[in-house]
Automatic annotation (TrEMBL):
UniProt-listed GO biological process terms: sodium ion export across plasma membrane
Transmembrane portions of the chain: 29-48
Protein name as catalogued: OadG family protein
Organism: Variimorphobacter saccharofermentans
Cellular component GO terms, alphabetical: plasma membrane
UniProt keyword list: Membrane, Transmembrane, Transmembrane helix
Amino acid sequence: MMGILQYVKSQTVILSSSNLSEYINIDTLFGAVVVLAILVFILLVLYLTKIKPFLNDSNPSQGRSVDHVISQIAENEELELSDNYELVAVITAAIYASYGDAVPADGFVVRSIRKSNRR
């Protein structure tokens, strides 16, 4: 029986410089492809970790709780109508003041608009 060392020695091929450069180019290309494949795999894993929370809606009650809070706010919100008359008067005065010299049919004339500092 032939030993492993003798088998390896008999199978060894001596390469010329042109054949050696060809094998070096193939090895370099193979290494670059492997590194690129690993980087693409890592990017894919990172991308999937960003998408996973959206795929698994682990907290469906969160949407319901937001809707519940919004409905409570809408129910508890009361409109304060006492100051709306002043606001309507100011808006009306501003509109009629923008008309300039044109006087409405009811004789309403805006003399001045002042800001009140009530708070």
